[in-house]
Amino acid sequence: MSFIFTPPPGHRLSPARKASFTSGDFACNLYWQSVSLYLLFFYTDVVGLSAATAGLIYMVASIFDGAIDPVMGAVADRTRTKQGRYRPYVLWGGVPLGLAFVLLYYKPPLEGVALVAWILVAHLIFRVAYTALSIPYTSLNARITDSSAERSTLAGFRMIFATLAGLTIASTTQPLAAHLGGGDTAWGYTLTAAVYATIATVIFPFVYLTTKEPPEDPGAAEPTMRMSQYWGAVRSNRAFWAVMAAICTAVICSTAVGKSVLYYFKYYLHDEAGGRIALSLNAASGLLIIPAWIFASKFISKRSAWFVCVLWGLVCLTAFAFMDVRSPPLMMAILLAMQISSLGAAMTFWSMLPDTVEYGEWKTGMRAESFIFGLGQFFLKVALGLGAGIFGWSLDLVGFHPNVEQTPETLAGLKAIMVVLPMAGLALGGLAMLMYPLKKGVHEDIVEQLAARRRVPPEAVAEVP
What we know:
The chain is mainly alpha-helical.
């Protein structure tokens, strides 16, 4: 059985079309960057949860989020409307997501188990709303072009908008919370979340109106794939599994660096404002680093780019391990150097993932693009959840307590967390990428073979190689 996709006529997208589509990443990342950079800190230093409890809530919510991603992917794959498979979710999912985000940063007048339960439920509601919109949105990457080169550029555009969102979140969250809260920090975070949600909610209809999906092939089979067929479509997709193994091992361990920044500056360097500056500089650096990676990807394969990221990251972490960094500017410089590796890996991942769709179709004759994106985000979110959980437990293990002076042993433990975990993740991620089969030029050959196969009447195709 073959489920056929007809690619758009011509592979190239205009810069305006790329920008309008990828502006959705600014909206999505107002949410995602906030959750990544501030939510764990909000749980411990504003709500007052222990690091272990905060990490556990974050981990449970992330794993739950990941578990529903493939289901949402299958639902989106089977959706057929006049507006397309995925665009309606982008249009109608914005308002529920915005409301859920505000709820995520609301601290109710509760204590103990009741407070923990509220925080967990609010987090789960947000994850459902985010998944319902983000899976169809990211799946559009594989629909609007099948060119590997264009996807690299799209990934770059997406990362630039994500960087702008990260810069916005990093530089304005704490000042806005302090200003809007009027002395009540928790309420300030709630109102700040409302500001970000309003901005994001306005952007999604614009993405809907300016992004067009290619028409369905009238001769293609109806979307009747069962869940077992979806699994069959990805089971032998070696490209997909290599990418997921690489990104998940890297993310589980490297999460420690990103989530340590606010704690390191507040407790190690005694410069809490410096943490916000460091996060802002890291975000702003993407405006230079990402175009550089886009340019480099034109000359080296995506697989090679991954190995460069791994090597550079290991060098930076080794240097940090042997230095006693007590100066905020020096720590900012080290974080900026590490950002080169992090952004390169992220861009490479989002550029590789759409390519695995064609590899799977070439191997099995079935195209399950949204399911692949959903399954990919499942593993990614589980990895992020495990990373946050491990980080929270590690903080608890080294004796961390919020809003008090930390012992020298705790501070040494914090630095060890920031070095050992990311180094292990980078090394394992590099080993996993050795199994990635799409070396330079291979994907382009596969796309040509698929185009030739589609020109053959379905009844003439006896077997998919």
